[in-house]
Amino acid sequence: QVHLVESGGGLVQAGGSLRLSCVASARTFSSNAMGWARHAPGKERGFVAAINWSGAGTYYADSVKGRFTISRDNAKNTMYLHMNNLKPEETAVYYCAAGGSAYDLYKDKYDDWGQGTQVTVSS
User: Lowest mean pLDDT: which of 26-30, 88-92, 93-97?
Assistant: First the structure.
């Protein structure tokens, strides 16, 4: 079983920034593309961003392009999501996910996901 642990969520004002982190096992990081999804109350889970193993290939939801940046540090088995200019409507639980490719994650084809970290954006 893949174990993914998110951190970095919290309360931030609209327009502010947060950096989320996701730590996985070395085995998981060496064989999986990684990504992020979010789930707000009353809404379906939605794709946010994904990155391939090398870090060179990325996908972003249209709503976050230009504001969010996904990256990974394979030496530390850690993936990051830098979120800038956050909006109140982006309040959600953010989940780290692993999949066979960044494209799979873009299509919501996840092999596993973490417990989530809460991001709350106040107006």
Answer: 26-30
How far apart, in whole angstroms, are the C-alpha atoms of residue 32 and residue 79? 11
d(CA 13, CA 62): 22
Q: What is the pLDDT of residue 3?
A: 86
Distance (Å, whole) CA 18 – CA 20: 6
Q: How confident is the model at residue 2, as a pLDDT?
A: 66
**What's the rounded Cα separation, in Å, for the pair 56 and 52?**
7
Burial of 8 (0-12, 13-18, 19+ CB in 10 A): middle
Strands 33-39 and 46-51: antiparallel
Residue 52 CB neighbour total at 10 angstroms = 18
Contact 97, 6 (CB under 8 A): no
**What Å distances lie between residue 87 and 16, 54, 99, CA to CA?**
8, 30, 28
Distance between CA atoms of residues 120 and 16, nearest Å: 11
